[in-house]
Design brief:
The chain has 157 residues and is mainly β. It is built from 2 helices and 10 strands. It is globular. The two termini are 17 Å apart.
């Protein structure tokens, strides 16, 4: 399944995001619990495309990571999607500031746009705006070959 194709099942009422790896308290958070008050204005246009900056709402990744309590040696996060062949790695400090978005311009994110949960990172490259987020693995070093995002730059919208 190419990263740009939505999953067949994307029910926000049943969707969870799991945080595990180098954490004291692994957890699974229902998508409905991610609709907090954090927001970000961002465009999801890739290089050569134009799109207005729109309002995305959700929860800061750092809020969720703090609940999982990363180990003192944790340095990176690997964000997974419904596509088992796609994952995107981030420095943990940068990931803390990212948004796990559940709403776009006040409405739940449509499945085609990455809903029910999409990762938005400030100043992101195209492949770093992960659609259909299912898991964040906290790591005690860079992800290496597990970070497949750069090899599979997705079509985005």
């Amino acid at each position: 399944m190419p990263h740009s194709e939505p999953p067949t099942e994307a029910d926000p009422g049943r969707w969870t995001v799991t945080v595990d790896g180098a954490v004291a308290t692994p957890l699974s958070v229902p998508a409905t619990d991610l609709a907090a008050g954090a927001s970000m204005r961002s465009s999801t246009a890739c290089e050569g495309e134009t799109e207005p900056r729109r309002r995305w709402r959700g929860v800061r990744v750092g809020t969720v990571l703090d609940r999982a309590d990363p180990t003192p040696d944790a340095t990176h996060g690997l964000v997974h999607t419904t596509d088992p062949e796609y994952a995107c790695g981030f420095d943990l400090e940068r990931l803390y500031e990212a948004l796990l978005a559940t709403h776009l311009d006040g409405d739940p994110i449509p499945r085609e746009r990455g809903g029910p949960v999409r990762l938005l990172v400030a100043d992101a490259d195209c492949w770093e705006r992960v659609k259909w987020v299912t898991r964040i693995d906290v790591l005690e070093g860079p992800p290496g070959d597990a970070d497949t995002a750069r090899d599979r730059v997705p079509a985005d919208d």
